[in-house]
Amino acid sequence: MTATEVVVIGGGAIGMSIAYALAREGVRPALLDRDALGRGASWSGAGMIPPHCERITTNPTTDLRSWSALLYPEWSEALRDETGIDNGYRRTGGIDVAFTEDEETELKAAAGRWRAERIVFERLAPGDFARVEPALTAEARAVYFLPDRAQIRNPRHLKALAAALELRGVALMPHRRVIGFDVVGGRVRAVRTESGPIGCDRVVVAAGAWTGELLGDLGVMAPTPPLKGQIVLLRDDRMPLRRIIEHGKNYLVPRDDGRILIGATEEDAGFDNRTTDEARRDLLAVAHRLCPSLARSEVERSWSGLRPGSMDSRPYLGLAPGLENLVVAAGHKRAGLQLAPATAEVIADLVLGRPTRIDLSAYRIDRPPSMVIDPAFRS
Question: Considering the entire predicted model, what is its pTM?
Answer without folding.
Answer: 0.96
